[in-house]
Amino acid sequence: MGFTTVAVVLFDEIPLFEASVPIAVFGERRGGLPEFDVRAVAAEGGPVRTDAGIALAAPYGLDAVDEADLVIVPTWRRPLGRPPAREALEALRRAHERGATVVGLCLGTFVLAAAGLLDGRTATTHWRYAPLLASAYPRIQVEPDVLYVDGGDILTSAGSAGGIDLCLHLIRRTYGSQMANDIARSLVVPPHRAGGQAQYIDHPVPAPADGDPLGETLDWALRHLDRELTVDALSARALMSRRTFDRRFRQVTGTTPTQWLLHQRVLHAQRLLETTREPVERVARSAGFASAVALRPHFRRQVGVSPTTYRETFGGPGAPDLPAERRAVPELA
C-alpha cells in the first residue's frame, strides 16, 4: 500500500541532523518524481528546541499524525531523560491501529517502544543504546548490529546513516528501485544497503588491567596477529593452565579466546583496508588468515560486506583508488 502524507514527529532536545533525515528524503521537490506531503509535527507543542539550541517552528500539531499514511519518529532525546508525552504515544498507537506505517529511526525506536508498538517484535536502534533498549523493554527482540528492521507495518533503524537507508528502503519497497535510486543520487548516498548489513562498529573487547599476566598476553597477541596463535600457546604465555586461562578470559572479556582472536583479526583487517594499499590477499595474511578466501566469510559475517566493498566505502587516502567506472552511484534497475 502506498503513502503520500508523511508525518515527522519531532520532540524537544533532539539532534538536528537526525531530525532532518526523513525531511531530506521525502520532503525535497525533485523534478519528475512524485511529491510527498511532509508535515513536521511538534509533538510537545510550540517550537521544537534541538540539542544544539536551535528552535524549529514545526507547523503541525499531533492531529496531523491522524491524517498521515506514514508516521516517522526520526530521533529522541537521551533515552534516560523524561519520557515521551502521553498524547504523542496515543497518537502513534492510533496511527498504527488505523493502518498507517510507523517508523522509528535511531533513538526514535525508544518512542515506539514506549508506545508499546514493538512488544513481541524485532527492532534495532543505534548500537550504543541497543543494550539499554533490550534491558528497558525485555519484550522486544533487539538486533544491535543491523542497519534496519522491516516489520511490515512497523520499521526501525540504526544510527543516522541507517535512517537514510531505511527511508530509501521504504521508497524502494513501495514505489520501486528507480525512484529510490533517483532520490539516492540526489542525496549522493548509496542507492541500497540491505537491512541485514552490519552497522559499522568497532566493538572493542574490554582489556584487563595493566600488569595482569592475562592483559600482557592479550597485548602481545594484538601485536602478533600475523602469527599462528593457539589458545594453548596463549595460556602458556600467561603462565596459566588451559582451564584457568579459559575461565579468566571469559570473566574479563565476556567471550572465548577463540572468538576474541577471530574478532581481533577481522578488526585488524578492517584497519588495513582503511589505511593501506595492500592487496586483500596480503591484508588477510597480515591479519593471521591463511588467504583472502579464508578471510572473506569471517569478514562478511562480522562486518556484513566483503573486504573489497568495505575498502571501497571506507578506504582513506592510503587506500587504492577506485576504477573510474566504479566512482559513480550505480544506476540499478
From TrEMBL:
<dbReference type="Pfam" id="PF12833">
    <property type="entry name" value="HTH_18"/>
</dbReference>
<dbReference type="Pfam" id="PF01965">
    <property type="entry name" value="DJ-1_PfpI"/>
</dbReference>
<dbReference type="InterPro" id="IPR018062">
    <property type="entry name" value="HTH_AraC-typ_CS"/>
</dbReference>
<dbReference type="InterPro" id="IPR029062">
    <property type="entry name" value="Class_I_gatase-like"/>
</dbReference>
<dbReference type="InterPro" id="IPR009057">
    <property type="entry name" value="Homeodomain-like_sf"/>
</dbReference>
<feature type="region of interest" description="Disordered">
    <location>
        <begin position="308"/>
        <end position="333"/>
    </location>
</feature>
<keyword id="KW-0804">Transcription</keyword>
<dbReference type="InterPro" id="IPR002818">
    <property type="entry name" value="DJ-1/PfpI"/>
</dbReference>
<feature type="compositionally biased region" description="Basic and acidic residues">
    <location>
        <begin position="323"/>
        <end position="333"/>
    </location>
</feature>
<keyword id="KW-0805">Transcription regulation</keyword>
<dbReference type="InterPro" id="IPR052158">
    <property type="entry name" value="INH-QAR"/>
</dbReference>
<dbReference type="InterPro" id="IPR018060">
    <property type="entry name" value="HTH_AraC"/>
</dbReference>
<protein>
    <submittedName>
        <fullName>AraC family transcriptional regulator</fullName>
    </submittedName>
</protein>
<keyword id="KW-0238">DNA-binding</keyword>
<feature type="domain" description="HTH araC/xylS-type">
    <location>
        <begin position="215"/>
        <end position="313"/>
    </location>
</feature>
<dbReference type="GO" id="GO:0003700">
    <property type="term" value="F:DNA-binding transcription factor activity"/>
</dbReference>
<dbReference type="GO" id="GO:0043565">
    <property type="term" value="F:sequence-specific DNA binding"/>
</dbReference>
